[in-house]
Each structure stands twice: as structure tokens, then as C-alpha cells.
Amino acid sequence: MSRIAIIGTGYVGLTTGACMAHLGHQVICADVDTKKVEQLQGGVVPILEYRLDELVAEGLANGRLTFTSDSSLAVSDAEVVFLCVPTPQGDDGSADLSYVQAAATTIAAALPHECIVVNKSTVPVGSTKVVERAIRRSDVRVVSNPEFLREGSAVDDFLHPDRVVVGCDDPVAARAVGALYDAVRPQLIITDPASAELIKYAANALLATKLSFVNAIATICEQVGADIDDVVVGVGYDTRIGPGFLRPGPGWGGSCFPKDTRALARIAEDAGYDFGLLRSVIEANLQQFDHITSKIRTAAGGSLSGVTVAIWGLTFKARTDDLRDSPALEVAHRLLREGAIVQAFDPTVPEHRTGVPETIRLADGAVRATSGATVLAVLTEWDEFKWIDPTEVAAAMPGRHVVDGRNILDRAQWQRNGFHVASTGRSS
Ligand SMILES: NC(=O)c1ccc[n+]([C@@H]2O[C@H](COP(=O)([O-])OP(=O)(O)OC[C@H]3O[C@@H](n4cnc5c(N)ncnc54)[C@H](O)[C@@H]3O)[C@@H](O)[C@H]2O)c1
């Protein structure tokens, strides 16, 4: 059992803290957001993440998990401190390290002798040194331990990781961080800090590449009469490729891929390498937002001006409440710019939710979002959309056009009810 402090209790920090407590460690989590800390102290988990509330309740009940808004207090008795603060995209595309630096500076004086500080935030190559400089303590080791969890299955990913990567030039500190995960029996990769930092960016960039690639193939399918669902099955059975991340959609987004791909392009540029491949992957994704928008425009008869479009799904993927850099919002913005009236429903987005522009009308039900609409666009793959009765939608919306950006609807059933369905990657 180790004494662990977590700085930043967002998707990564709270998952790390709750899971580490579940594994038997003594954990204290700190956040500058006092409202969030109060909620967590009362057992209220402010984000949607499967089983996270269960683990937080468990940790609070057995006393292994506590919360504070005082970061210095949190680290004062810690053997290992995890930095889990944001690293948003800076103005020049690079990762903004100001949160990491601020957090490191705040805790520096309060760190116990020979404490280990772990960078779990996604940070560019060289950030271990940046944290070392912010801490200015020769007795403190800084270790890179990038996080690979997926929102929506973060707890499961933490407790059953594909691998745990630890980067440090000091083998004792690296082994100490790796040992925190012993109970989950990970494939442990111990390497130098630069390699650990680059592994995270390379993994996200490769996943984004797969998605941009499959979306491009889907567009070709639409033109040549092929069916993307069959194509990806045929491609994915190749063991050199694998079936993961081959589902077409309205583009990729979320809190990581957009900023991490841009940050890696910037890292490459700074290193003197023109990463044209990655820039094309990013560009193809922007084209995909435009492509889905153009399909909605076509379904509307060629112009979106004054047309009511219903959108099902606003989060960047299903099973999360995260709206950051959501493809659905990207498409919604494009529709609004062309004069459409956008009515949206998402099961995790209540009316008046922050993060959704006021220009998007939020409905309190999927069928209600289609009221008066000419076109329905499905942009997030929530399971519950699959089971909606098209006859109810037909009664609510005057139009008969559906753009299924995620290929989740039963096309034949919707067609039987008089709808024209434009799928993704199929010539309908
Ligand atoms: N969300 C993901 O799926 C995911 C996956 C892997 C890696 N990451 C990386 O992990 C990092 C955190 O991401 P996230 O999604 O958890 O972010 P988040 O925005 O959900 O949470 C960050 C938290 O840090 C807090 N914070 C900011 N400054 C602080 C400070 N000085 N002291 C204490 N708390 C502070 C914020 O109040 C917030 O609660 C980022 O670098 C991200 O790229 C995210």
C-alpha cells in the first residue's frame, strides 16, 4: 500500500484516484475547483463514467479516498504524486503546459523528502524536465506515466490496462511507480521519459489515422456502391490491422485526439520533421465534418437556410457526457453558419447545459427534437437511438430524410416507414 496524492480530479485524475484506492492504496485527491471537491466529498461524481461513482463511494466508505482543495496539504504526506491537470492546445498548436507548471510550482515546497512526482497529463517530449525545473528539488524524482484510458470505459481500462508505460532515467523511481499497478498485472513498459511521452502521442495519432482512413474509405464506398460495414469486416480480420477503430463516423473529436494530433505535428516541426502524413489526417477529419454537413444539405434539398435539422447526439462519443471538441458540435456549427435551425437531443446533455451554444435548441427527448424538422442527423452512437420507433418520428417531423452519421439505425425499418436514409459509407 502506498500513500498517493492526485492533483486534478477530472476524467483522468478521479479515475486514477478512485481506482488506486480500490487497489488498496491510500489516496487523497486535490482540485482547484472547490465546488467539484465539495461534491466529491459528499460522494457526488460530477462526470459520467461507468462504475466511477461505485468506486468513489467505496473509497469514501473505507476511508482510503479523500478529497481536498488544498494541493499542498494533499501532497504533504504522499510517497507518489500524480499530476492530472489539463494540457489544452496552445495558440501555436503545441500543448499548453501552464496548468502542469502551476500545479508543480504550488506543491514543490510541500513535497516530502524523496517524493516521486508523476506526469500523467499528456505532455510533449521534454515535459519531465519542465516539471523538474518547476519543482526545483534535487531529492524529488519526476516520472512520466501517460494515461491511455478511454472515456466511457475509464475504470475498466484502468483496472485492465493493455499496458502501463513508465518513463524515468532513475530505475528505482520507475519501478516504484510501476509497482503501484502490481494488482492489475499490467504489461509494464519501462523506458526513458522522452519515449514514454512520445508513446502517448504516437498511439493517439495512429488511432486518429485509422479513423480518418476509414472515413475516407467510407466516402469512396458511397461513390462506388460498396458497403463500408462489409469492407471494414474484411479489412479488420487481417491480424496485421485488427478490427478496432475502423467504424466510420462524422469525424473524430473529444478532449484528446484533436489537441494531441496537433501537438505531435508541432513536436515534429520543432524537431525539424515535416509530418505531412499527420497533417493530412487532421485535414481529412475537417473534410469529414464538411462531408456530413453536405449530406445533410443535400437531404434538405440543396440549401440549409431556414431549414430545421434535428440532431441526435452531441457528446463526442456514446457513454460519456464529454462535449469537448465533439464532431456533433462541429457539424452543428456548420449547419448554423448556413442558416439552419438546429434542434438537438443528447441523453447526457440537459437543457441549458454549459458547453452547448445557445444557438442550438436543446430538446428534452429524441422524438421531440425532430418536431418540425426536415432532416434528422444521427451524430453520436447512443444505443437508445437504435430502438426509437420511426413511426413516432414520422408523426413528429414533416421531412422524411435521415442522415445516419454512425450507421446505427435499422435502415430497412426506417425505409419501410417512408424515410430516405443516407448512411455513412453506403450508397443508400
Ligand atoms: N480525458 C481523457 O480521456 C484523457 C485520456 C488520457 C489522457 N488525458 C490527459 O490527461 C490530462 C487531464 O485530462 P482530463 O480529461 O482529466 O482533464 P479535466 O479537464 O477533466 O480535469 C482536469 C482537472 O484538473 C483541475 N485543475 C486544473 N489546474 C489545477 C491545479 N493547478 N491544481 C489542482 N487541480 C487543477 C481542473 O479543475 C479539473 O478538475 C490531460 O493532459 C489530457 O490530455 C485525458
Radius of gyration: 23 Å
Q: In one word, what is the shape?
A: globular
- Measured between the Cα atoms of the first and last residue, the distance is 58 Å
At CATH level 3, the topology of the largest domain is Rossmann fold
Main pleated-sheet profile: 6 strands, parallel
CATH class of the largest domain: Alpha Beta
Q: Enumerate the distinct ligands.
A: nicotinamide-adenine-dinucleotide
- The CATH fourth-level homologous superfamily of the largest domain: NAD(P)-binding Rossmann-like Domain
Structural class from helices and strands? alpha/beta
Per DSSP, what share of the residues sits in E-state strands of 2 or more residues? Answer: 5-15%
CATH architecture of the largest domain: 3-Layer(aba) Sandwich
Number of helical runs? 16
Describe the strand arrangement of the main beta sheet, using strand numbers: 3-2-1-4-5-6
The pLDDT mean sits at 97
Number of strands: 14
Low-confidence stretches: none
Domain count: the total is 2
The ordered H/E elements are EHEHHEHEHEHEHEHEHHHHEHEEHEHEHE
> What assembly state would you assign to the polypeptide chains in this entry?
single chain
